[in-house]
Every structure is written in structure tokens, then in C-alpha cells.
Request: fold
Amino acid sequence: MTAISRGLAAAALALGAAAACAGASFAQEMDKATEKMNAKSFYKGTPSIPKRFPVQKGWLQMPTPPKEKLKKHTFMPPISAEAKMRAMQSLMYYNPFSLKQMINFMAAKKKAAKGLSFDDVVESLKTKGNELNMKFVGVSTPWKIIRDIYDKNYPRVEIFSFCDLATLARILEYSPEFIVFIPCKIAVMEDRNGDIWLVTLDWDVRWMDTSPNPNRISDDLRKRAISIRTRLEQMMEAAATGDF
Reply:
């Protein structure tokens, strides 16, 4: 190896070490910021992107697929496991979060007030859901089976399903694949400390609807999606505070 080659290799190693240190510092800062903000669980205040991004015009545009004519209840072609793996690995290369942190990022949660029983929380959740036209459509109780076959002291966890049927119908017209996310689920779980938590998937079109892709959901469906998320928040807040 020539002196120049050794010098370049040393410089590359130094840059790599510096980048690793900077990345670790950035990840720690992001982790602290996320932990601080996540106490709010749901976003409060005026969204930084209150309206939809305008459709791209002019010659300088981000390359996207062309606008397509929507055919209701039509599935898209499946994506291979290999293609998904390559795409996600490319994205994860720039991601400072651990898997646990990423799951936390996708969850919205509220801790129930002290003194509320598990059943109190559930009753309040169902009552508020009915009031907000979020129909209760089912419950899953895996803890009962887990206690029998795995751990007799396993925490109680129940997953409740709610649905705005009119919105569900319109969502499946636009994207049948969305069936993997619906009906909307709110889990109630007692952790190892005896605290009761309410948890749901935190998806908000106000921060997902920022792509320049012209194939967007309709304004009506966007409003409905925002309304669903707002009602889930109200249900969790009512259950967490014991508001019957």
C-alpha cells in the first residue's frame, strides 16, 4: 500500500469514526426529544402542515408515478419480500432509532389515572366510543390463554375494536390493503408496575399526506381519517381519566 493509499484509508477511518460519534450523539438527542414529546401522546395545537401540499407544477418536480384513475375495491400487485427487505434496509441505514424506539414512535398511549380499575377504564372507553359513533365491534383477550400456557402472572391485556362503518367503506374503496389496519384498535394493558395503559396505532394523514405523488386520497376521505384519529384520542382520554 502506498503512502497516499494509507493516508486515504486513515482519513476514511477518521471520517467514519467521526460520523459514528456524531450519529450516536444525534440519536441520543432524538431519543430525549422523543421521550419528552411523547408524554403528550397525541399532537396538540395547530399542525405545522394544516393543509395539503399543493400538486406539483412546472418543470422542476420530484419524479413520481403518473396520476391514475381510481378503480374502487382494487388491490395493487403484491410487493416481493426481497424488494421490501432492500427498501427497508436502505431506509434503516439512516435511521438512528432502535426497533423498540420505532415501535414506540408508531404508538399513541395514555396512562390511566390512579384509582381506576381495569374494568372502569374499559367501561369508559366503550361508553365514549358509542357517544362518538365509533361502534364497538369486538374484543380479543389473549392474556387469559397466555396465563394458562405460559405465565400465570402475565399482565392483563385486552384489545378492543371500534369502527366508523361509513369511513371504513370509503377507505376500502380507495385501498383494500388498508384492511390490515382496520377496524381501529385500542389496547388496554396493565404493566408490571400495576399501571393501566391505553395504546393505539398513531397514524395521522396530516403528516403522512406530504408526498408529491399525485395519487392522493380525496379531501372527504382525508377529513374522515383526521376525524377518526381525533375520536380515538377523545376515547382514550375519557378512559384514562374515568370520564363516563
Observations:
- The beta strands are 107-111, 135-140, 157-163, 184-190, 196-201.
- The mean pLDDT is 83.
- The chain has eight helices and five strands.
- Residues 1-43+81-105 form one domain.
